[in-house]
Amino acid sequence: MVSTRYFSGNSMKGGASAVETFASWLNSCEDIITLKKIHACTLTSGHGDNIYLGTKLLNSYAMFGTSTSLGDSRSVFSKIVNRNPSLWTCTIVGYFRSGHLDEVCDLYIRSKRHGVCGDSGIFTFSLKSCTALGMVKLGRTIHASALRTNFSVDKFVGSSLVGFYGRCGSIKDARQAFDEILHKDVVAYTTMITSYAQSCHLESEEAFDVVIRMHEERVSPNRVTLVSLMQAAARGEAYREGQIIHCYSLRRGITDEVLTTCLIDMYIRCNATKSAMSVFRRMEERSVVSWNAMISSLVDVGHPYEALRVFNLMKKEQDWIGDEITLANAIMACNDLKWTYVAKSIHAWIVIRHGMISVVDLVLTTALIATHSDSEMKMARALFDALTERDAICYNVLLSGYLRNGFIDEAIPLMERMVAVDKIPLNSGTLIVLLSAFAQLSDLTRGKCIHGYALRRGFDSTVEISNQILIMYAKCGHMGVSRQVFEKTMNVKDLVSWTSMISGYVHCGQPKEAIAVFWRMQRLKIKPDSVTFVSLLQAVSGCYLGTCSINQVNMIHGLIRRLELNRNVVLLNCLISTYSECGRLDIGKRVFDTMPERKLTSWNAMIAAYGIHGHLDDAIQLFDRMKRENVKPDGATFTSLLSGCSHSGRVENGRDIFLTMTSKYSIAPNEEHLACMVDLLARAGHVEEAYHLTSRFHLKKNVHVLTALMSACRVYGHTDLGKVIGKELIHLQPGKYGNYTLASNMCAFAGEWSKAADLRNVAADIGLAKQSGFSISNSTVL
């Protein structure tokens, strides 16, 4: 037995000292029981306070890393503690390697109390522990001590400082710490590049400046450096730089799975899906990790359809369906496409394969909860309750579903359960979900409560929460409060902050203020993105009519070209609509004709532009061109066509288009389609046909359609039908005075004066009265 070998009476013979013998035993110790016996021997032999043996014991206890060994380790350290930095370093390294990071931070604090002069190891591993634990205050204290002792210029300490500040989001402090390192090695450069890569995408561009400097200093990048550069290229959508890194990795022969996976992600985020697929297909072996990276990247960048194609390719080539992450990504892609039935079929497969859903991965179950939270909250709650472990993301998804469907009474107890039962504090994600939901519901009272909670807990210091707060106030119609949050309480503003202010002003009907915010951005040299320009174009189209508006749109169009955003389909669609609304249909058509890629929304935007200007023939020709190019129309296409027919009074064309929509494309008409048809028929005098259409498609509860029909009845003399519609309007809205007036006027038009008077008397008897007009300039806006 091992214990007999260690503790036999002849074990210390042969001239070896007791300390050396104990040290050799510790080097070959294999389990915690034996270690405790050796420790006991050192104590009984009087060597319990020997620093050399104590250090060996500390390392041995740290290697096992159990809760009992941690207590014994503290006991050993308390007996040999002194001001020798190497002892403290050895102990800190042991705790760090065993994963007891909180003990590392505690030891650092104790070392300062004992007056220990820190060395490179103490600073390095204490900073690494602060980074992992997110202890910003202590990390800054360690940095101050390193500065005083001139250890901040050490490459190991400096690299740890760069990593610490980079993880905490203080990229300027990270760069300053990097610049202070005297002799930079590949680790220092890689840490700085990684910090830039993990920051916002504007700062990720700085990573390439660092690698240029690295090349000038003749420091060769390693695999980790290349991975970080790939991440920086992906975040900054730097396609050219990504290609250069790809070529370099091929020349160096660095083509492992991790790097290739990052390469695929980079190409997808740079909108080069074909290049990503080419790299993916050339992989000698494609593991489930590679397939998952391909699918998840496509989901992340908003290409769910392509993600599902890769998912189907995986099933076909590999003859298997992947793991839980694969299924979760596939379900998320279905959720993005609103393909609920496909997501539910995957759910059914999981239930058949696994039985109880609770045995399936938490990420997968969360994706399924998101699927069902759009329409089947009971199923979503059943999935949630079946989980044995829950995290903040799972709670946030279910909470979002309750709030989105208006079940506020269910959401509040869920939030209380999250904090009280599962001991999960409300995090920034929860607050964003709540603020977003209350913004959509225009629930200012509850939105203010969440704002107050964020202030009390210090969440308002994060830019994401502050952005959501100003969006909430804007959607609730309080742009004054949004402006206060933006100007006075936000110390850091990102592009989302500025874009949110512009869209908020547009939402509240203040387009001139939105345009002023944009030009302020330009003065501060803040680079806008496609979302910013879309909101700006909406502001311009709502602000002016005529030449001044065209000048604004032309200027914005020039900026879009200069920033190389003229390949963004959504932005170009918005330009088409804006030019059309400003009276320049010719420029809108030029934008459409020169688009490098057209999606269905682009065709719809151009057809709608033709319809607004009454160019129905051009709209129909474009529709025919769509069919020739195999672009399948949707409901919005037919809405624009029918609206154009209504504005042009082309009844026959409208009938043909309506018939084509239902018979050839199997698109069920919605209320908007039917309202366009009713308006078209009523304007042309086909009042009875229009009324028959409302009866056939159960449109009699649409007040706007019935009101338009009643007006047409009066114009074309269909008094009997007008009186019937008048009764239906009164039945739908018995408390609205205007409906009694319309019905009374119809009776008067038919010469039935007594019935007209009776209707007005009925309105007066039930307390209805005509509302007085008022001037908005004299009213007080709260």
Spell out the blueprint of helices and strands.
Layout: H1 2-7, H2 18-27, H3 32-44, H4 51-64, H5 67-80, H6 85-97, H7 101-113, H8 120-133, H9 136-148, H10 155-168, H11 171-180, H12 186-197, H13 201-204, H14 206-216, H15 223-236, H16 239-252, H17 257-269, H18 273-281, H19 288-300, H20 304-318, H21 324-337, H22 340-354, H23 362-372, H24 377-386, H25 392-404, H26 408-420, H27 428-440, H28 444-457, H29 463-475, H30 479-489, H31 495-507, H32 511-523, H33 530-543, H34 547-562, H35 569-581, H36 585-593, H37 600-612, H38 616-628, H39 635-648, H40 651-663, H41 671-683, H42 687-696, H43 703-716, H44 719-732, H45 737-749, H46 753-765
Summarize the structure.
The protein is mainly alpha-helical and 782 residues long. Helices cover 73% and strands 0% of the residues. It contains 46 helices and no strands.
Measured as a percent range, the helix fraction is over 70%
Number of helical regions: 46
Structural class: mainly alpha
**How would a crystallographer describe the biggest sheet?**
none
For this structure, the CATH topology of the domain at 669-768 is Serine Threonine Protein Phosphatase 5, Tetratricopeptide repeat
What's the rounded overall pLDDT mean? 79
Radius of gyration: 35 Å
The proportion of strand residues reads under 5%
Q: What is the annotated CATH architecture of the domain at 669-768?
A: Alpha Horseshoe
Organism: Zostera marina
GO molecular function: mRNA binding; RNA binding
PPR repeats: 185-221, 287-317, 391-425, 494-528, 568-598, 599-633, 634-664
Protein name: Pentatricopeptide repeat-containing protein
